[in-house]
Design brief:
The protein is of the alpha+beta class. It contains 21 helices and eleven strands. A five-stranded mixed sheet has the order 9-8-7-10-11, with no helix packed on it. It has a two-stranded antiparallel ribbon with strand order 1-2.
């Protein structure tokens, strides 16, 4: 048995067969994946292994029973990584998870956030995942094994959130003493369009700050990565949502500035019901370029996978024989004929197993594919952004030191000070700021000449900027939108806000302003209707 330095985690993948082996210790277990499924494992279920190389069945049972078993694989992944950091910390201080004390948890919090000896300290907002994971795990372990719960917090359910009690338009959260004081402060950052395009060109397309492409650049997947980033910025979707889209769910680019699409319920955070969202024409054109059957990289990776038989070896493949866009259903091949299956009930992992038959072989319905032709996993987009940020930082160093005369330490300092970087969620923040600027301008124009009482009446009936922005972002309540964005957006000058818009979007705003002017400035148009009529683009 191998001895490891730290706790580790792996995840069950039921989509690929296990590699062949002649190890008798493994063969005596028979079908390992079938055995795991009978023991409650699903695709994406974590397996946490101790430094001795042996898993602790009590810890791993946490992800297979109770409320945690009903969560999405993304939640399992976050909690599993949080738990192994905690378990490594306990090994260092010489105790085990079932003997941990309140003081150990407080020491862990201090080490994660403030301890100067820790070179990998995190922000208070990031510690919220650790807090939620420990809270849920020990609440479960306390009930199942009688283990003392060392987490000094309110009793929590397995949903990762403390209890909320509804009020008249607001919600009040119960006190949680383990939550860091700074965790409520939202880290909202955004990019102007010019900055995003520069970051994209340097990080994803191989250019330098001088606007020239670097010699030797091989950007095989740059059309995919650019289309994905354009989509995040243009739609405001979360990474999980945009990464889970099927090719049949997107409209074709046409004359309208915005295309309408439906986001399936199981792909949305919370997963209660689906919703409509809008895709800019330029994003659809970028996606169509990536998916072009002759020149796009998507078709190339599919052909390569078909030639080597990669799709034929997958487990659990479901063959799609048709799609009904009116009802939002797929028709799945079955023993007694095609069966209708609503797109709304298909979670991201299920979507990875959807294929259609073509003359060349099987072909995935998932839009975003890796170099091996398989659907790209949601968390792997973090690596795409991280790699792009490294390229941008290297280009920043080359710009400052083209002749390589600076020392290694000086170059590293320049690299750390690179002012241009991006994360996937910054694209969503930028989308929110862009639409906040559009909606603020339109509200200012359409309410000119009304008395304060009339303005209040209109807002009560049809909603203000925050309600409309909540609709675009997919928030269930405008209070959520205010909580994230009110403070960061307050005080920004209108000229700055409008600088986020490109020419196409500015033309859409001007068109709406003219419509309001023709109606005497008295027509209140909800954002959904405005978008549907070809307005604010």
């Amino acid at each position: 048995m191998d001895v490891l330095e730290h706790w580790s985690v792996d995840f069950y993948d039921f989509t690929v067969p296990l590699p062949p082996t002649d190890d008798p210790d493994i063969l005596r277990f028979g079908d390992l994946l079938g055995r795991a499924a009978r023991n409650g494992a699903r695709h994406g279920t974590p397996v946490i292994t101790s430094p001795s190389g042996r898993p602790d069945p009590r810890i791993n049972l946490f992800f297979r029973t109770g409320r945690m078993a009903a969560h999405e694989a993304s939640t399992w992944r976050r909690y599993a990584y949080a738990l192994i950091v905690w378990l490594d910390f306990l090994d260092v201080i010489g105790t085990s998870w079932d003997c941990a004390s309140v003081r150990d948890v407080e020491a862990f919090k201090d080490w994660r956030i403030t301890d100067l000896r820790n070179d990998e300290r995190i922000r208070p907002t990031s510690f919220d995942t650790d807090r939620a994971a420990l809270n849920s795990f020990y609440s479960w372990a306390s009930a199942r094994y009688g283990v003392f719960n060392p987490v000094p917090t309110v009793e929590a359910d397995d949903s990762d959130e403390a209890t909320w009690s509804p009020g008249p338009g607001y919600m009040q959260q119960r006190w949680d003493p383990l939550r860091p004081a700074g965790s409520r402060r939202r880290q909202v950052k955004w990019l102007l369009r010019a900055a995003l395009e520069q970051w994209r060109n340097i990080g994803l397309r191989g250019f330098d700050f001088d606007g020239l492409r670097r010699d030797g650049w091989r950007g095989f997947n740059e059309d995919r990565d650019c289309a994905f980033v354009d989509g995040l910025y243009g739609t405001g979707l979360r990474v999980r949502e945009w990464a889970s889209v099927l090719d049949v769910e997107l409209p074709a680019s046409g004359g309208e500035r915005m295309g309408e699409a439906w986001l399936a319920a199981k792909c949305i955070k919370g997963g209660e019901e689906g919703r409509k969202y809008w895709i800019p024409r330029r994003v659809l054109q970028s996606v169509e370029g990536y998916a072009d059957p002759l020149e796009g990289s998507r078709a190339e990776v599919i052909r390569r996978a078909q030639r080597r038989g990669g799709y034929d070896r997958l487990r659990g493949v479901r063959i799609v024989t048709g799609h009904n866009p009116r009802t939002g259903e797929l028709y799945i091949e079955g023993g007694s004929g095609p069966a209708a299956l609503a797109l709304d009930v298909l979670a991201p992992d299920e979507r990875r197993m959807l294929f259609r038959r073509t003359p060349a072989g099987l072909e995935p319905l998932c839009l975003w594919l890796s170099v091996n032709g398989l659907p790209k996993k949601v968390h792997s987009w973090e690596d795409t952004f991280a790699d792009a940020n490294k390229r941008v930082a290297e280009a920043w160093v080359r710009r400052a030191d083209p002749d390589g005369r600076l020392s290694k330490e000086e170059r590293e300092q320049i690299r750390r000070e690179c002012p241009l970087w991006a994360t996937a969620h910054m694209c969503r923040h930028s989308f929110a700021l862009k639409w906040f600027s559009i909606l603020s301008l339109l509200e200012e124009r359409r309410l000119e000449g009304f008395t304060p009482e009339e303005i209040e009446d209109f807002r009560d009936q049809l909603g203000d900027t925050w309600l409309q922005l909540a609709i675009l972002l997919g928030h269930n309540h405008p209070d959520t939108t205010r909580e994230y964005y009110l403070e960061p957006f307050t005080g920004l000058q209108l000229s700055y806000l409008m600088s986020l818009l490109d020419d196409d979007e500015q033309a859409g705003v001007d068109s709406l302003v003219r419509i309001f002017a023709r109606h005497g400035g008295s027509t209140i148009v909800p954002v959904a209707a405005a978008v549907a009529t070809g307005g604010a683009r």
